[in-house]
Amino acid sequence: MIKSLLQELHRNLTGYHTIKFTSYISLVHASIIKKLCKRCRQRLHMPVN
């Protein structure tokens, strides 16, 4: 019963989780970029804040 309940939840929340996962990935990406040195960011043509 729990398994079918979880499958139903998964079906209902797949879109929501995809959005959350995507925003999480972009957050991680942004933090990695912030850790790069300014020279590396300039070489990658990233904005240097």
Compact overview of the structure:
82% of the residues lie in helices and 0% in strands. The protein is built from 2 helices and no strands.
Global Rg? 18 Å
H/I helix tally: 2
Q: SSE order in H/E notation?
A: HH
Number of strands: 0
> How far from one another are the termini?
52 Å
Helix content: over 70%
Give the overall form: rod-shaped
Could you describe the largest sheet, including whether it forms a barrel? none
Class based on secondary structure composition and strand pairing? mainly alpha
Average predicted confidence as pLDDT: 73
Key traits:
49 residues, mainly alpha, 82% helix, 0% strand
Commentary on this structure:
The protein has helices spanning 2-35, 38-43. It is mainly α. It starts with a helix and ends in a 6-residue tail after the last helix. The longest helix has 34 residues, at 2-35.
Write the layout of secondary structure elements.
Elements: H1 2-35, H2 38-43
